[in-house]
Amino acid sequence: MLTGAMDGRVDPMHSRKFTAALQAATSSGRPILLRTSMNSGHGIGSSLSERIAESADEISFLFDQLGMTYEPMK
Fold it and tell me: Are 49 and 12 in contact (CB under 8 A)?
């Protein structure tokens, strides 16, 4: 789950409650994570650096869950 602490449209508490409900309901043993950005809102107006950091976190989590490794090009 992704949420922004400065979101004017959706209260970040909704994301927190939904994440907690998913964690309580799952039996898979897989993590359910909530990423909260303290400097962004509903996506519009997020800085380029914030969007890059969010994408990097998403891809890192996906790679981890799929058991993938990354080797830089030489």
Answer: no
